[in-house]
Design a protein that fits this description.
The chain has 100 residues and is an alpha+beta fold. The protein contains three helices and four strands; from the N terminus they run αββαββα.
């Protein structure tokens, strides 16, 4: 049995979903959302990334990210959907809960 592809968020569903993500920004020129985070040091940044990586792998939905010392840049977009989907919103909310 083939899995149903993930649908890209559009219209009112997209507007409502993105409105619930206060610290995320739409990425210009791309159907993706982005957040920048700064931690006290590299250890805290890496610990955060580890927690997110475990959850992302379990959900089979992986972020695009980079880390330089205490800074983490994250971009979320569902490649097989061609843009932001419910998977990105769910992962963004998880990330926000880890940071809080």
């Amino acid at each position: 049995m083939t899995a149903k592809p993930t649908a890209r968020l559009t219209g009112k569903a997209r507007t409502a979903a993105l409105a619930s993500l206060k610290k995320w920004k739409e990425l210009p020129g791309r159907d993706a959302i982005q957040r920048s985070l700064k931690f006290a040091d590299f250890n805290q940044a890496w610990g955060f990334m580890t927690r997110v990586a475990l959850a992302a792998d379990k959900a089979d939905h992986h972020p695009e990210w980079s880390n330089v010392y205490n800074k983490v840049e994250i971009v979320l977009s569902t490649h097989d959907a061609g843009g932001v989907s419910d998977k990105d919103v769910a992962l963004a909310k998880f990330i926000d809960s880890v940071v809080s």
